[in-house]
Design brief:
Blueprint lengths: L2 E10 L4 E3 H4 L7 H8 L3 E3 L6 H16 L8 E5 L10 H9 L5 E5 L5 H14 L5 E8 L10 H4 L5 E10 L4 E8 L7 E2 L21 E2 L1 H23 L6 E6 L4 H11 L10 H4 L6 H11 L8 E8 L3 E8 L1
Parallel strand pairs: 4-5, 4-6, 11-12
Antiparallel strand pairs: 1-7, 2-3, 6-7, 8-13, 9-10, 12-13
Helix pairs in contact: 3-4, 7-8
The structure holds oxa(dethia)-CoA (UT7).
Oxa(dethia)-CoA binds next to helix 2, helix 6 and helix 7.
Length: 323
Amino acid sequence: MNSVRIIGTGSYVPPKIVSNDDLSCVVETNDEWIKSRTGIRERRISEGENTSSMASKAALNALKAANVKPEEIDIIIVATATPDNFIPSTACVVQDKIGAVNATCFDISAACSGFVYGLNIASQFIRTGYSKTILVIGAETLSKILDWSDRSTCILFGDGAGAAVVTVSDRNKILSLYSGSVGSKGRFLVSKAVPVENLYVESNTNDNHKTTMDGREIFKFGVKTIINGVKKLLEDAGCTEKDIKYIVPHQANCRIIEFAARELGIDKNKFYLNLDRYGNTSAASIGIALDEIVRKHLIEQGDKILLIGFGGGLTYGGMVIEW
Ligand code: UT7
């Protein structure tokens, strides 16, 4: 089996900043409620950019950091719940935009766990020797699937993209992997695609396609996933919390992280958070946070970090990485 490592990261968020105060003009809410219940101060919202555009910018940043040319990429995986189109995949659109002419391209749908699912899939392709260099992107334009009249969901989310280049290594740097899904709880976070309307079924124009969520159920699931995932990933990597420089969780809600950190007996400052500035960007969130850590030089070669994601599906996944 080949060894695997991440050699470059990149991210992109749209320039438009929307504060909690801005949202209080859209729905009945206020800065104090949003900050105290979620930790979010502001988020980025696309002004016309679609998912492939943000994904391509994050990808080019990651390729530059990795010193890899687009034509050297064997596979592009885009994790997204908000593709530009049903067909072609966002990955194929990104391929064309960045000139990755030799890549096989496909999207995956795992909501907020998408980026770690993508890294996991990439590492399997590399381990088996099928591929050498893979671009994994988590990218979302969640603003286009939100119900902007529902204050319990629209205040949480933002747009953006994170990317990583994964390649063959002389020593394995992915020390443990973890993933799973609970389809029976899928109803707790839903964004519908088009309903069945065809020659035989009349259209139902009342059908709501926007995102709906049972916040409390997702909250409980998030806390449980982080607790179980961190324990399992540490055990499988043969290390303890003390060996980990940062835990990079899905950026959903700082109270989810506080609950999990307390239960795990881990200092909450070990969890890297940027959700105050970006909100929850679903599949992009861990990728954006990882890139920020790298660009701020918060980790050095040899440091270990733990990624842990959870979200719609319901899905969960994580990994311990040595940098
Ligand atoms: O990637 C995964 C995506 N999903 C998540 O991460 C969501 C996880 N869940 C959460 O983050 C939290 O459940 C929320 C932040 C969504 C909600 O927080 P909560 O503490 O569970 O609040 P709640 O739903 O129990 O609502 C409490 C009150 C309600 O009013 P009443 O019934 O007590 O009068 C809500 O109507 O807060 C009200 N409320 C708001 N008030 C001001 C709900 N949303 C808002 C709002 N502004 N935006």
